[in-house]
Specification:
Radius of gyration: 15 Å
Number of helices: 5
Largest sheet: 2 strands, antiparallel
Strand content: under 5%
Structural class: mainly alpha
Shape: globular
Length: 97
């Protein structure tokens, strides 16, 4: 079994991968609007009122809401077709502590 790992919350990697993913996947105009729309969420996160998980959910909703199915399918296809220079594939069993 081949497994491609995407670590959006830093559990496996040492750096954030969520932000670069969103910057590549979301349309530029939506990113600009998202900075304004998501500013209360960012403040809430920094004050400890909103979890990182909830913040990512809201950001994904803002970034992808209203996108046409064809564009989203193309994004999924790109993620599935990553070659070995962009993702590391392993046979593995994942266990959470």
């Amino acid at each position: 079994m081949d497994l491609a790992l995407f670590d959006f919350d830093g559990t496996i990697t040492r750096t954030d991968t969520w932000t670069p993913f969103m910057q590549l996947a979301v349309r530029p105009a939506r990113i600009v609007a998202g900075r304004v729309l998501l500013s209360p969420v960012v403040v809430g996160y920094k004050l400890g009122m909103i979890s990182a998980s909830r913040g990512r959910q809201v950001a994904a909703r803002v970034g992808f809401r209203g996108e046409d199915a064809a564009r989203m399918q193309k994004l999924l296809d790109v993620l599935e077709d990553l070659d070995d220079t962009q993702a590391v594939y392993h046979n593995a069993d994942l266990q959470a502590a």
